[in-house]
Every structure is written in structure tokens, then in C-alpha cells.
Specification:
By secondary structure, this protein is of the alpha/beta class. It contains 16 helices and 22 strands.
């Protein structure tokens, strides 16, 4: 393929198993009759302001613009949503519908994608030739739940396969007509405060409108997980040379792509850089804590179990806060204060707060954190939202999948006066309110998960490398760990053992 030949021309090593070439000729077997050009489409990237995520979104924007330039298709209109709209809930999309209609209602198609997505412009235009933009179309790679799940409010319990929702990573589209219909509907309705949990499902459910609206039309050419990592940027002339030397290329089925592997941001952070703090209580000392210790806990070089009482058999660290049935804000704030003030924890740059039924990979956490600067105020995990539909509200990290804080973020939260009204207040939501009040960005990673693997579409999990799951209920947490995380953690341990051995061996040689 053209771009891959260009890579070989540069002698660049490519860390992907599969290939996606945006310059490959599209499969015209199913080309339609509508004539669609680049000027008919606007590209909208669901971006974030955190430096690493901004870099990825800018790379996606640059790739689209470069394709248009090299292939002389015209000027691509590409926008980063977090820059385009000063609305804290922009990422939930529904509150933006009137603005999107006002700003982009003249386009026949709105193409949305994630910060790491890739799209072939010519391939996309080929797909769009099959659909009339003056009809209500919601085009996407359709996902559906295996069974009714709590994160989707147990909807469609009779048959979850009947309801499809978009795979955001593969890209998705609104037709001009659908956007107009949604904007009119939105303006005619009252909107109450509600939670944003899984935006792709909530968006599709709103548009479906109890069967009176528009359902997702599955597009088989929209793909995700079909590359390991995205290719690095190449100059126009290098790509042009690859295109010019291509002969008899086979058409490419996929017109979009999204990487499946963890990002490569250099060496993983040191084990000494991360403190894992497991929130527990006496009730679960003999139930949940042993599972943590048998699974990921054994690979965490620095881990504390923070409880309402001291228990030397674990051992636990007493928080000084009585146990509460829910919320645990008091306990989390006590951990923040320990992390900042206790000399034992002074060396750690990162704090990861987990529940005692969180299941995670230590190795993947360390690898992911290499993409962030602990000197910045980083608050990282799975992002939820509250009250964005009503036009106000805030983002927060849901605690079950784990919440990661840089030391700078912990200091800023405490210095700003972030505190609990009551010990039983929900810690994740209180921290979220503080991040909004003190202008600390909440950074979303889709690799953290509030629920069990069975609560997610298999099509969604197939194209990512998860960092965490949550809940011991109604599944085998040890099996979940073994299936999803153990291999990477064992490899981390083996690598560390080898490094320690080599270090000792070299030292003996020197002596």
C-alpha cells in the first residue's frame, strides 16, 4: 500500500501487525449514486486539553488535512471539540446539538471521531455515496450489549442485540437532516440534571427516542482495533512518492482505524514512582483484600491498604475515619493527606486510588503513566459527568476503575481547600466538583472500566488494551485478572527480576 511503501522507503520500523493505508483505493463494489465531495463533510474530533491527548488529536487533524492536500481534494474542515466549544460537558455531545446545527448545519455530513482515530477521506466519501444526506442517517460501526448491564441502566433486557450504539473509536456520522431534526427536538424539550456514564450508548438512546427516532445503521467499512499503533507523521513528499510508485493496489475494506495497543511514550514509569492505595474496611479484610493480594497487589512495589482499623495480618493503615456504607470521601481525603505529608510516601510521584474490588494491571498503569508529566496537575481515569444535560454540572472520575492523581494534582486539591461535607459523601463526585472549582482538568482514558468485562460489548473490548475493571460480584475476579492482566504483570516482574540480577552481577564484577 502507498503509505506503507513510503514507510519502507524511510526504513522506519512499524509497530503494527495489521495495516491501514488512508491513501489506498477504496472498495467501489458498493459505491452509491450520490456524489459526495470533501466540501460536504466537516470533521469533529472529541479531543481533550491534557497535553498528551491534545498531541494525539492534533495528529489526527493533521492527518486528515494532509490527505486532502496531497490528493488535491480541497481544504478539509477539521475541528477539535474542546477548542471549538467552551462547555465543560462538550464531550457528552447532546448539549452541543443546537450549537453544532448553528455552526455546521450547512454541511451534508458531520463526521465525529476520537483523538486516536484515523480515516481515509476517499474511502469515507465512497461510503457516503450510498446515503442521502437529506434523510435522517446515523452511520456507525454498531455495537450491542451481550446482556443487560448496569452501565446502560439494564435497558433492552429482553434482547440487547436489538439496540445498536456507535463505536466512537471507529468514527460515526450525522446526516444534515438528522442534525436538523435533533436540534429542533432539543430546543423544544426541557432537560433535567442527569448522569453521563457511557456517552455512546446515551447518545444513541436519545436519538432512537423510544423507537420514534433514528437507529444506528451499521457500516462494515468502519473499523477499530485494526492497527496496533498509528504510524508517525511523514512529510508530504515522502507519502507522494509512495503513492506514485504504487501499482495495482488491492482495494481496502476499512475506511477508518483505531489502535488496539497501549500508547508508546517511552519507558514505563518506575515502580517507585507509583503508590497504590486500596480503600477497604474491616468487613472486607478476609473477603476482598486477599484477592487483591493474590492478583495485582503482589506486583505493586508500593501498596497500602487503608481501612477503618489497623489489622496487622494484612497489614492495613488506619485512616482515622469511621467506615461508611457508601461515599468514602473522608477516607479518600485522609489518603490525600497521607500522600502529601507522610515522609514514607515522599518519593512517589503518582497516587492511584482503588477500591478493594478493583482489578487492574500494574504493568499497564506504569506504561500508561509514561504519557503524562507528574509535575502537571493530572487527574486520570474513566470520566463520568453530572448535570451537563441541564446546562451546568461537572466532570468526575468514577472510582471503581481506579483514579490516578499526580502529586501536583493532590497538592493543588488540598491547597485549594477541597474537602468533604461529610465522611460518607461520594468521593469521586466531591473531587469532581473540586476539579471544576479549581480549574483542574479531568482526563479521560477509555482503558479504565467501572464495571466487569461482561458489562461491555465484546466488540468494544476487542479493540483496546484495558487497564482496569471493577467488581467481584457475579464473576470470578481471579479469572478476570488471569484472562486480562496477569501476562503483562508477570512479564513486568520477570523484567524487574532480570534487571535486579544484572545489576547485582555487574556490581559483583566491579568488586
Amino acid at each position: 500500500m502507498a503509505i506503507l511503501k513510503a514507510v519502507c522507503f524511510l526504513c522506519v520500523a512499524v509497530a503494527v501487525v495489521e495495516a491501514f493505508d488512508p491513501y489506498a483505493p477504496p472498495d467501489t463494489t458498493y459505491k452509491g449514486e450520490d456524489e459526495v465531495t470533501l466540501k460536504d463533510v466537516v470533521f469533529l474530533i472529541r479531543s481533550q486539553s491534557t497535553p498528551w491527548h491534545l498531541i494525539k488529536a492534533q495528529a489526527t487533524k493533521a492527518d486528515i488535512e494532509q490527505q486532502a492536500r496531497i490528493q488535491e481534494l480541497g481544504t478539509a474542515q477539521v475541528f477539535l471539540l474542546h477548542e471549538q466549544y467552551n462547555h465543560i460537558g462538550y464531550w457528552t455531545l447532546l448539549p452541543l446539538i443546537p450549537r453544532l446545527h448553528k455552526d455546521f448545519g450547512s454541511y451534508k455530513w458531520l463526521f465525529f471521531c476520537e483523538e486516536d482515530s484515523r480515516v481515509s477521506i476517499t474511502g469515507l466519501l465512497n461510503v457516503l455515496s450510498r446515503y442521502d444526506s437529506q434523510k435522517d442517517w446515523f452511520l456507525a460501526r454498531g455495537l450491542h450489549d451481550k446482556s443487560a448491564t448496569i452501565i446502560h441502566h439494564f435497558r433492552f433486557i429482553e434482547d440487547t442485540s436489538k439496540f445498536k450504539y456507535p463505536d466512537f473509536e471507529a468514527g460515526w456520522l450525522f446526516s444534515q437532516s438528522l442534525l436538523k431534526s435533533l436540534a429542533a427536538r432539543w430546543e423544544s424539550e426541557e432537560h433535567k440534571a442527569d448522569f453521563a456514564i457511557d456517552v455512546k450508548h446515551e447518545l444513541a438512546y436519545y436519538i432512537w427516542n423510544d423507537g420514534k427516532g433514528t437507529s444506528v445503521t451499521h457500516i462494515p467499512e468502519f473499523c477499530a482495533g485494526n492497527v496496533g499503533l498509528n504510524l508517525d507523521f511523514m512529510e508530504d513528499d515522502i507519502i507522494a512518492e509512495g503513492i506514485s510508485t504504487s501499482v495495482n493496489e488491492e482495494p481496502q475494506k476499512c475506511v477508518t482505524a483505531h489502535p488496539s495497543k497501549l500508547p508508546m511514550c517511552g519507558e514505563p514509569v518506575s515502580q517507585d514512582d507509583v503508590l497504590f492505595a486500596v480503600k477497604t474496611c474491616e468487613k472486607f479484610h478476609k473477603d476482598r483484600v486477599p484477592i487483591v493480594k493474590k492478583t495485582w497487589g503482589q506486583y505493586a512495589a508500593n501498596i497500602i491498604y487503608v481501612s477503618d482499623i489497623e489489622d496487622s495480618s494484612i497489614p492495613t493503615v488506619a485512616s482515622g475515619v469511621p467506615n461508611t456504607e457508601r461515599g468514602h470521601c473522608g477516607k479518600s481525603m485522609a489518603i490525600f493527606k497521607m500522600f502529601r505529608s507522610d515522609a514514607k510516601y515522599a518519593q512517589h510521584k503518582w497516587l492511584m486510588l482503588t477500591d478493594d474490588d478493583t482489578i487492574l494491571s500494574v504493568a499497564r498503569v506504569q506504561k500508561l503513566l509514561a504519557c503524562y508529566d507528574s509535575n502537571d496537575a493530572v487527574v486520570l481515569g474513566e470520566r463520568y459527568g453530572y448535570a451537563h444535560m441541564a446546562g451546568y454540572g461537572y466532570d468526575y472520575l468514577t472510582g471503581g476503575g481506579g483514579m490516578v492523581f499526580s502529586r501536583a494534582a493532590v497538592n493543588k486539591l488540598l491547597d485549594s481547600g477541597c474537602s468533604c461535607g461529610k465522611d460518607e459523601d461520594p468521593d469521586d463526585m466531591i473531587i469532581g466538583m473540586c476539579t471544576k472549582r479549581y480549574n483542574i482538568p479531568v482526563t479521560h482514558s477509555p482503558l479504565f472500566h467501572q464495571a466487569r468485562p461482561d458489562d461491555y460489548s465484546s466488540g468494544f473490548l476487542q479493540h483496546q488494551t484495558p487497564v482496569s475493571f471493577h467488581k467481584h460480584w457475579n464473576n470470578d475476579p481471579i479469572q478476570v485478572y488471569q484472562d486480562w492482566f496477569m501476562k503483562d504483570d508477570m512479564q513486568l516482574f520477570a523484567t524487574k527480576e532480570q534487571a535486579d540480577y544484572t545489576k547485582q552481577h555487574d556490581l559483583k564484577d566491579e568488586l
